Hints:
The protein is an alpha+beta fold. It is 52% helix and 15% strand. The relative contact order is 0.16.
Amino acid sequence: MTAxxxxxxxxxxxxxxxxxxxxxxxxxxxxxxxxxxxxxxxRLDDSYYGCYPSESDFVENIVxxxxxxxxxxxxxxxxxxxxxxxxxxxxxxxxxxxxYDRDCGEYYFFNRNF
Length: 114
């Protein structure tokens, strides 16, 4: 007979976001989020910004969404010189935190200002 684990609504939402039914992984992600003050479904939904393979991919996506016209108007040699990893370290890491998922090798991004 298998014991049934009852999840809180927050844990259930974490399970959905991180696409896992493994209670150990759910507890890990829940603990990480709670350390940042994300302890309700609403806070989780308000702070979540997506899953990306790297910080630089995340920054490139945001910069492209916000400044596409500006970037498109730049000469190609300047476009290719944009350093998204440096942007992460200089600007974005102050407003976002990440949780790295070793199982899928990707980062989940959350806004600190939810």
